Amino acid sequence: MWALVINPTSGSGKGSTTGGRVAAFLTSRNIEHQIISGISASSVATNLAVFIDNFPECNGVISVGGDGLAHIVLQKTTPAQIPLAVIPAGTGNDFVRSLGWSLEHIDPYLEAIISTAPKSIDLGLVDGEWFGAVLSTGFDSMVNERANTMSWPKGPMKYNAAIAIELPRFKPRHYEITLDDRSISTEAMLIAVANGRSYGGGMLVCPDADIADALFDVMVLHPVSKIEFLKVFPRVFKGTHVTHPAVEIVRSSSVKISADAVAYADGERIGPLPISAQCIPKAMLTWIP
Fold this sequence. Notes:
By secondary structure, the protein is α+β, with helices and mostly antiparallel strands. It has two domains: 2-116, Rossmann fold (3-Layer(aba) Sandwich); 131-286, Tumour Suppressor Smad4 (Sandwich). Helices cover 31% and strands 31% of the residues. The strands form three sheets. A six-stranded antiparallel β-sheet has the order 6-5-16-13-8-9, with helices on one face. It has a six-stranded antiparallel β-sheet with strand order 12-11-10-7-14-15. It is globular and about 60 Å long. The two termini are 23 Å apart. InterPro entries: ATP-NAD_kinase_N, Diacylglycerol/lipid_kinase, Diacylglycerol_kinase_cat_dom, Lipid_Phosphate_FormReg, NAD/diacylglycerol_kinase_sf, YegS/DAGK_C. Keywords: ATP-binding, Kinase, Lipid biosynthesis, Lipid metabolism, Magnesium, Metal-binding, Nucleotide-binding, Phospholipid biosynthesis, Phospholipid metabolism, Transferase.
């Protein structure tokens, strides 16, 4: 038995279409599955928890949606050590990017799910909450805070509009960062704690991050002028920003961050700092190419 968790509204309706494709695939292979959805994030989590209670040794859970849905599902599958596959149907899909699967062609992913054994990867754990890709604080979190209050525009343009609103008023914050082997006291514009390589819909904030090395890549963007920030920012989509002198990347299995700021993980609000995060080796069972 499999659980098929679908967010029909993700990706402006792509979740519904892709969810139908996955259900049809499973049916065509005579694979028993139960579709799980809900009217809210909490109801999805509750319904999935009931499924896991009823089928504690199920084959796995397939999440069809974006990083937000995957984040919800992670909280239930990881403690139960149930394999999780994340089929991309959202706006960002950065967890799937980190796993190495194509965003366009899901058939190889589906074939792997039913024909090969899952493998273990690392996850981040921040104050009791699991995350798969990136935990961040600073300018991007302020942009998320702003975007979450906006009803227009929709999709990725909302994030761009929020950047335009927040950047003119943004000022670097002072951060106290504690790592495995050092402490850093610094002004910074952004800090990203990366288990996966990207966030924000393909921004390669830590392009060398490895989901199976038991370490976070921690990127610190030290203060630059706003003009310089606008020059550097586009480079994050290719990961070439890491050569900029204001960018510092260190590796650590644990990270503590204190500041007057908020944090987000996998695009979901974690809350105000201070926060404490650990990279948990082999925490999750999933399929990778």
